[in-house]
Design a protein that fits this description.
mainly alpha, MetI-like fold, about 80% helix, extended
Length: about 270
């Protein structure tokens, strides 16, 4: 028993000391916090800040029933439907564009030179924020929901392509080797080997992106790209807090419903529940 205790003690002594690493990480974190404090400065509330905050809180607790029940183009239902349509169409178009890009960018499908070209193109698309695309499309096609659809489409391509590339490259290589041995063409390999194996993964990724697009589409209206964002920012600017409350309530309900159904679909895909 004593020999065992001695062995344990020797192993414990050989165990690396973690406190130097901890001190270095703590010092690095403190330095970052110091830089943040020097960059982001708090100057306190302005003179009317407290009054505005009080009015906003009271207004948010009393949503506008008139806006909720309004069935016209300025009603809550229509604006939410337009926002959802922008997100849905943008996701569908994004998937159509991202799928071929993902296959051409995968190292186990396409040659290296084509991988490099397509990956560079995807990286360029992902480098720009959605707001920049929204401003550009508003200038090109004018204000409205169509500009929002184009923005969601291009904004979805980068993320969807990246996630699909990872799924394609991580799949079982035996299927591709078997199809190669059978003399299948690249299209036949994709159609009969890759798509059936990755169908659930693709659907899950698309649903995840749709959930993100629903949230993003709510703010595109700020730059005139359709959706509820324009009305929301206009109501905030006017201090019409009951209307703001109604729109926020509608957005919360829509996002919760999207989260519920997307979670149910993912569970069915993953475990067949």
């Amino acid at each position: 028993m004593s020999n065992m205790n001695l062995t344990v003690q020797k192993q414990y002594e050989k165990y690396p000391k973690l406190w130097p690493k901890f001190l270095i990480e703590a010092a690095a974190l403190a330095f970052i916090i110091y830089l943040t404090r020097e960059t982001v400065q708090y100057s306190g509330l302005n003179e009317k800040g407290a009054a505005i905050a009080k009015a906003a809180l009271l207004g948010l607790l009393h949503p506008s029933i008139k806006m909720i029940l309004d069935t016209s183009s300025v009603g809550l239902g229509y604006m939410l439907l337009e926002t959802l349509a922008i997100a849905f169409l943008g996701t569908v178009i994004g998937v159509v564009l991202a799928l071929p890009l993902a296959f051409l960018s995968s190292r186990n499908i396409a040659p290296k030179w084509l991988n490099y070209v397509c990956l560079t193109f995807i990286s360029v698309l992902r480098a720009f924020p959605s707001f920049m695309y929204a401003i550009m499309f508003v200038k090109v096609v004018g204000t409205g929901a169509f500009a929002g659809v184009l923005t969601m489409s291009i904004g979805s391509v980068g993320m969807l392509s990246k996630l699909l590339i990872e799924a394609i490259e991580d799949m079982n290589p035996g299927i591709i080797e078997a199809l190669d041995a059978a003399g299948c063409s690249p299209f036949e390999k994709v159609r009969y080997g890759i798509i059936p194996q990755l169908s659930s993964n693709i659907v899950s990724t698309v649903i995840y992106r749709l959930d993100i697009n629903v949230k993003n589409a709510t703010v595109l209206g700020i730059v005139g790209a359709g959706g509820i964002g324009a009305s929301l920012i206009h109501a905030i600017g006017q201090g019409n807090w009951p209307n703001v409350s109604a729109m926020l309530l509608g957005l919360i309900v829509m996002v919760l419903l999207m989260e519920y159904f997307s979670t149910r679909i993912r569970k069915k895909l993953a475990a067949g529940e």
